Every structure is written in C-alpha cells, then in structure tokens.
Amino acid sequence: MKIALHDEHRLLDRFEFSKHVELSTLKDADCLVAVNEDLGFDKGKTVLLMMEPYGVDGSEEYFDRSEEYLMFATYDRSRCRELFFCKDASVWPMEPVHRLRQNTMGSLSDRSVYFAGQTFGSKSDGKTIYHLRKRIVSGLEKRGLHVFAVGRGFSGQTANNFSRIVTVRVAKMREIVSTGTAFVLCMENTITPGYVSEKFHDGILSRRVPLYLGCPNIEDYVPTDMFVDLRDFYDGDTVDIDGVFDRLMTMTEDEYGSILAAGESWLNTFDNGAFAVWQKRMCRRILKLLGVEGVSE
User: What is the C-alpha separation between 212 and 218, in angstroms, rounded?
Assistant: First the structure.
C-alpha cells in the first residue's frame, strides 16, 4: 500500500508510517493521510485530521462533509466520530514544548503587552474572535499601554513571515524576550470548548504573564492562577477594555510574581512526553483502519 502523507505541522510520526507502508506522492498514492486539508483527493480514501476549530480558515467545509471521509478526526466530540487529540486538551500537538522555555523571567518594569497573530474584520462572524484581537490591542494603546503586535492586520510582520509553525514559535519567543514586555496576549481563533492551542503554551513558556481568552472551560485543563483570565472581561460579544487596562495597571509585583510562580509549577509537572505517546497510537490506529497487517495499538 502506498500512502501520501500531507502533514506540514508534523502532527504525525512519519517514521511510524514508513515502518509499515510505502510513503509516496499524492499522484501515486492509494490513500491520503492529511492534516487540515484534503488536497482534493478521494474523500473515501482520505484520513483527515483537523487541528483548526469549526469556522476557522474555511474548515467548516471539511466538518460539514466529515461523514464522507474514511476517517475524520478532531478534538470536538460534537462534530466527529473520532476524538484525535489527547484527552487532556492542554497537550498541544507540536514540538516538545520545553524546548521553547525561556531562561529569563518577566517583570513589571515595563507594563507593555506582546501579541503575535492575525486579525481582520470589525465584527463577530459568530465563529471566530479575530476582530477582538485588534480591538483589545488598539484599545490598550489608546489608554497609553504599549503593545508590540505583529502579524496580519498589524504593522509588524516578523512572527508570521515563516512557513513552518515551529519556526514561528521560536521567532515569537525571541521577540517576546527582546521587547521586554511584562504580558503576552494569548487569544485563540475561536471560543470553543476543549480547544487549547499553542498560543496558551507560548504564553507560559515565555515566562511572562499570559492574558488568555479562548477555551471557555480552560479550568478543566490548567490552574487559572497562572494567567490573567480575560473571560472576566468578555461578555460573549465584546471585551471590557477599561477593565483589562485597570487589571494590568493595578497588578502588584507580588501578584505578578505569584502568577509566574504558578506557571513555573505547572511547567515543572507537565508531561512533555504525552503527545509522543498519543502520536504513535494515532498512527497505528490509522494503519489498522487502512487494513495494514502486523500493526498493534
């Protein structure tokens, strides 16, 4: 059997597949195992793993036709037959996170904020919160708080000029440290239960205080004393910028240090090998689904 593996995010273990099947080009493949897009291949011969939430970057088309795929998997039980992420949504499927852990701790000497990501639109589309990113950034700046914002829709582009997400994360970490910011704005693409992306991890790994908005049940996965919870200022449609500004400006050194300490404690107990274990299991499950013999879960 020949399998085409389309996996720019390195979600799957390529070596695990190559032990059992021949990896080929899409043109010569008997089936496709892909992440985030099906490349127009026969859906009945495609295993599609969706890392993006419903409604982000055109993903709804894949979700709405999920029954047509040989296997369609995501983290959202309400939208698929297969739950492909680890049960712990805080285990984000990327490079081992501790490689990005920074050496220097943040401080309140400069109460500025760092954000890397894209923003577009001025109103909610009912699916994403891209518009709120720009609203928060511009709102804080108008109140006199400096924000280093990079990415599509902002003046800076550094962190989004790389083709591979691992490289993007390395660049982001370097920028956070070099700017000397005290806070990192960590906003998901959407408000979706169980969806915790690399944005959260990067805030903690930067060893600055994260400002987090995204997963509405984040407390099911991580302690909430390790970040500023922007849900306290979010009403489902907009964000109370005055409230966020006051929260950052009135934070004491002791409170800042306490939040950092909570993040350090979580990092020190985080199972950095959990994803690698899941990765092998998922590869083997896919191989068995494809009828490859000699594969055990």
Answer: 9
